[in-house]
Amino acid sequence: MKKILIVSIISLLSFGAYSQTSVHPKTVNHSPSTEKVNLHQLTFIDYIKDKKRFAFVSVTDDLLAHGDKSIEAFFLIPDEERTHSDPVNAQYSKPYYSIDGRYHDIFLGKVGLSNSSIFIYDKATKQSVSFDIKDLKISAVIKPNQNQGPYFESDYLYGFEIDADKVNNFEQPLVYIGEQNPFIK
Predict the structure, then answer these.
(1) Does position 119 have pLDDT exceeding 60, yes or no?
(2) 3 state SS for the chain
């Protein structure tokens, strides 16, 4: 009797879940005009001492989405820069690190953007520019308003540097990273 009751409850719950999904189906529209586009923010970094102002596109959230809750920055910031071998307790002394060499390749692999470009469109001026990811410098930049170091991996933004002069006149920039420009008609 107990088994029959359990099977009946499970069947009713399964039917309830099935009926909810069939009554409210998801609408998937793959037309280019309504396709969801994940935009990034363009930020100007001018608070790093001894570093010329540059535009920055953070992909920190993309790194978190493709990996664990930890960015595992010790694989991205050169080994000689960290003070501890444990990624959670690793400390860094500088507010800026260039991610070069093998760390550059690891970064692109972790974020999944190897063959991508950055497309920037300004809504106000109707200008657009694009940059191949492979040609951009990758860096770890301390978040604004952080106190003096030591810093931890969660204190950094990870992303791509763009020459500020190339986007200085952009007033309302939309930034997309991918293989095709979503801003062209």
Answers:
(1) yes
(2) CHHHHHHHHHHHHHHHHHHHHHHCCCCCCCCCCCCCCCEECEEEECCCCCCCCEEEEECHHHHHHHCCCCCCHHHCCCHHHCCCCCCCCCCECCCEEEECHHHHHHHHHHHCCCCCEEEEEECCCCCEEEEEHHHCEEEEEECCCCCCCCECHHHEEEEEEECHHHCCCCCCEEEEEECCCCCCC
Measured distance CA(118)–CA(45) in Å, rounded: 18
Provide the residue type at 159 as one letter. G
Proportion of the chain above pLDDT 70, given as a percent: 66
Q: Once rounded to an integer, what is the mean pLDDT over residues 98-111?
A: 84
Q: What is the mean pLDDT of residues 150-165?
A: 89
Query: Among candidates 119, 136, 137, which has minimal Cα distance to 128?
Result: 119
pLDDT tens-digit profile of 76-101? Answer: 676 555 555 665 667 788 899 998 88
Q: Nearest 5°: phi and psi at 9?
A: -65, -45
Neighbouring residues of 144: CB distance < 8 A, sequence distance ≥ 6: 47
Most confident region among 13-17, 53-57, 132-136 by mean pLDDT: 53-57
